[in-house]
Sequence to fold (498 residues):
Amino acid sequence: MNSATPNDLLAGPSQEGAGDVRSSKPGKSKDSQESHECNASSTTTNGVKEDTNKPAEPKISGAELKKQWKAEKAAKRAHSKQEQQTPLQDGQTTGGKEKAGKGSTTQSLQSSDPKVQHRRGGSTANAQKPLQIRPFQQQAPQSLPEPKAEVKKVALFSHLYGTPRRTTIAGAGKDVHPSVLTLGLQMSNYVICGSNARCVSTLLVFKRVINAYTTPPGTSLPRHLTTHLSSQIDYLVSCRPLSVSMGNVIRWLKLLISRIDPDTSEPEAKSEICSAIDHFIRERITVAGQVIASSACSKIRDGDVILTFAKSSVVERTLVEAYRQGKKFRVIVVDSRPLNEGRNLAHAVANLGLQVQYVLTHTLSHVIQDATKVFLGAHAMMSNGRLYSRIGTALVAMMAKEAEVPVIVLCESIKFTDKVALDSIAVNEVAPAEELGYSGAETHEEESPGKWRGSTSYQPLNLMYDLTPEEYIHMVITEYGSLPPSSVPVVHRLSTNT
Fold:
């Protein structure tokens, strides 16, 4: 008897007219044979016998189903991402492709996973609806900040370049008094220019600072007030370096504050300091200038031609005093760029009725022949007898020495210093090079230094002061009298001790 394998049982439809399938294996019980007969039973339709009990598909576990769903989801995301990165060349064509692609993708997902079909099932129109893709917009390139113009430095004077001058109050400390803010900007813009003017303005502003000052609890006025003034001084230095006279005044003021008795009440201490400041301005600057002007006026004779350089408040006071005394003389004002301070002096003297000649330094060799005396102002007198003044002063003094014209320096003792200078390279002040540019209607674009700023061979240098050797100076007139340049350190000691 032929035995039936399981493959034969599954291939039932291919055996037409087959009867009951019997198990011929020995050792099988009758019950097992009956169960095999029941399992192998089939129905016949149109003469074809079909198997009604096909083996069931293997069940998928939850983990495998979840893994399959994640794989399909990742494939869908990759497909949509690829479509978004493709540039849109034709709107209609791309839209059609998107519809077709989306529809096919949705159909495949629905047909492959029954859970996905049940959860995301819907109308065909919703399944094939194209994904709205935002059109790609190219961002405009961000404008980079313009690089700051590099400050060109002359190698010989590179040690003089410091922090650029402050031109605004931005970044100032909260402890800086408003009057100090105003004074710093006025000095930076040359609204207040000149050693005496800067010194007096500083003292007057410090009076306002002291009057508005309140001693914090737990401290004393002599100790804390000097610290409070230091922040004001730092702001002034950031606007423009201190002059020699300002440095002398600040040292005197701090010494005065440190000598105040800590037991003194605050209103009384403030009143004492402000009275001392007023007395200092009156004695060391105002009265000193009057004494110097009276002494220098005695050097002027009728018919003299007085030559001066730039502008000095003491020289101007001397010329005014000589005119009021009825002396007949003429004035030559030599000036130089970029400040052109001599214009103010020329206008002031001309308004009095004096005959004034205004020239620039390039004509100095011609006008020096007509001069009988040279009066010069001073920014400072060094301890070795040299004159530290506005740049161009040394040129005037040397030309006067060559022409055998006496050079007289008018200077208050507050401008004397114990420092020694041998040249104007080691110690000086460098002003912004932009100040050398031309101004006014006569400006020529090809002559302006701004036109040459991009040139590597052009390095502008704007020095403020120069140094005149003592052999070119005939006399120095101070409030202590007329003296040679070699006596400057003696006078400085006298003025400091008093």
Observations:
- The first helix runs from residue 6 to 10.
- Residues 1-52, 87-127, 439-444 have pLDDT under 50 and may be disordered.
- The first strand starts at residue 42 and ends at 45.
- The two ends are 148 Å apart (CA to CA).
